[in-house]
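step=predict obj=Cobalt-precorrin 5A hydrolase/precorrin-3B C17-methyltransferase n=568
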Amino acid sequence: MTTIRIGLVAATAAGRRHARTVADAWPHARLVEADTVGDALRAAFTGYDAVVAFLATGAVVRVLAPLLGDKRTDPAVVVVDEAARHAVALLGGHAGGANALAAEVGALLDARPVVTTATDAVDLPGLDTLGWPVEGAVAAVSRAILDGEPVRLAADATWPLPALPDTVRPDAPAAAYRLLITDRVVPTDARTAVLRPPSLVVGVGGSRGVPAAEVRALLERVLADAGLSPASVRALASADVKADEAGIRATADALGVPLVTHPAADLAAVDVPNPSEVVRAAVGTPSVAEAAALLGEPGRRATAELVAPKTASAMATVAVARHAPRGRLAIVGLGPGAADLRTPRAVAELRRAAVVVGLDQYVEQVRDLLRPGTRVLASGLGAEEERARAAVAEAAAGYAVALIGSGDAGVYAMASPALEYADDRIDVVGVPGVTAALAAAALLGAPLGHDHAYLSLSDLHTPWEVIERRVAAAAEGDFVALLYNPRSRARDWQLDAALRVFAKHRPPETPVGVVRNASRDGERVRLATLATFDAATVDMYSVVVVGSSRTRIVAGRMVTPRGYRWRD
């Protein structure tokens, strides 16, 4: 959900009803009232970050036309029709966030988002949607990408960007349009756009009471002398004792970047070219500006080089370090199979990735969601370890990677093998998914109303003796049990063995449910009891749910009471 301030404008009873739905769901959305609808619309446009107007598109255009200024500063405007069938991103599609807002409003009102921005329409990432400053001939280069013309890509390093089409490549003809990814000040022309990656950390030291104007002037001079763009500064860094220094903090605020600080002991451990014993005596470390610039943000380990050694003014000291990109690994759970059980966040991560790694059959489920130019690394069953290593290696090389698995990637899936190899040099994002067990439970009724345990019966990686002890513990503890990997052609006895253990602790009429292909083609749901269950009907596409001693069948549904009361 968006957190920007949203002004809602409506003229009719139906429009106000839809507006109330939005306002009830979003605390930052407010219905704007005025003497006339036009006045309300103008007030929302000038006083809010975004506008959702429950009006006719033509009326909104006529009222707002005199107020339009620049797409980089105008608020987003989304128009919703009287029946809430469509949410139209009218103004500020990229820069204002109207395209994303239309999707959010559409999801809330069950309306279809209408987005006409060219890059979105053909499923390409807009240069102004990547979250980085972009300069130069943005429109011309974007048009060239849309038209399939060759665009010469030149990057100082590999950054975790979304996939770009195959026409954007380093070996494009020299006369082609150019897309540069650099923190350096470079000449541009009518065929060149420049993306500014967040690569620079500015280390700042200063005497107590240093003016913000002095810090800012020194910072700008150091960057200019080094030929570096202020748009690539991602943080200011200093010593802990400077955390409350108003001039330094105001400079960070003015640049729109965080101020991070480090203990003197951590700064003292950094090897710098220009240490100072005077500084050591004052703050406990021989370097503040250079050491802080090289350390960067706490918890984000990356290779860094000093590109501008410390420079001092009367009361301030500034140094600049360039930090190597950190790759991004998104571990994505795709859900049990049905597209409508795939979370929006999972879809967003798939579309953000430049590399997708996964089991071949799972890749085919989502191939239509991948952007043009996405590199796919697919492999078959049994190659889980290789997929995990490949995903981490691609992220370590600086790419944006999505490692996909069914259900939730952390439940008997790819998250744990991948995170065994991923160190703190890459950013990791976990995207939860609907598990097969949850999908199966929903189809069976409410078997998980009380305590339950997940158990895998596969002894490929775990000795059966260990599995049997865990099954016995769940049975003795009277947990509802969800049995994964219950039976295959090569493993045809383990399920029967597990059910015999449960039968020692549960009455024979205990419900047992099995769901095959939950939410997918060929879905099948069956209910039985411990006494009547036939394990031969189960395969690796199934999840078996063994009830507790309190689980019952109610109107053909499997129900485990929460424990407050139960009526026989």
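step=describe
The radius of gyration is 29 Å.
step=end
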